[in-house]
Amino acid sequence: MPKMKTKSGAKKRFRFTATGKVKMSPAKKRHMLINKPKKMKRKARGMEIMRERDANLVRIYMPYAR
C-alpha cells in the first residue's frame, strides 16, 4: 500500500492541539490594514480553534498529523 500524501498548503497553515483540535491563524490581516477597523485587527491576532465541520476537511488533508 503506498503512503498517503499530506497537502503541503495545509501543513503550512494548520497545527493540531494535544486533544486533536485544529489551530489556525485568522484571515484578513495581511494588507489594506488602514481600511479595516481596529476591532477586526485585534481579533485577528494569534491563533484560534477551527470549527469542527471545517476541521474534518483539514484532517483529511493531513493524514499523519494525529
Taking all residues together, what is the mean pLDDT?
94
- Supply the number of structural domains: 1
Q: Please give the alpha-carbon distance between the first and last residues.
A: 20 Å
**Percent range for β-strand residues:** 5-15%
| Helix percentage | 25-40%
Name the poorly predicted regions.
Answer: none
Task: Predict the CATH topology.
Answer: Factor Xa Inhibitor
Describe the secondary structure blueprint for this structure.
Blueprint (H helix, E strand, L loop, with lengths): L7 H6 E3 L5 E3 L13 H6 L4 E2 L2 H10 L5
Antiparallel strand pairs: 1-2, 2-3
Provide structural commentary.
The protein has one domain: Factor Xa Inhibitor. 33% of the residues lie in helices and 12% in strands. It is an alpha+beta fold and 66 residues long. A hairpin with a 5-residue loop joins strand 1 and strand 2. The longest helix has 10 residues, at 52-61. The mean pLDDT is 94. The protein contains three helices and three strands, in the order αββαβα. The chain has helices at residues 8-13, 38-43, 52-61; strands spanning 14-16, 22-24, 48-49.
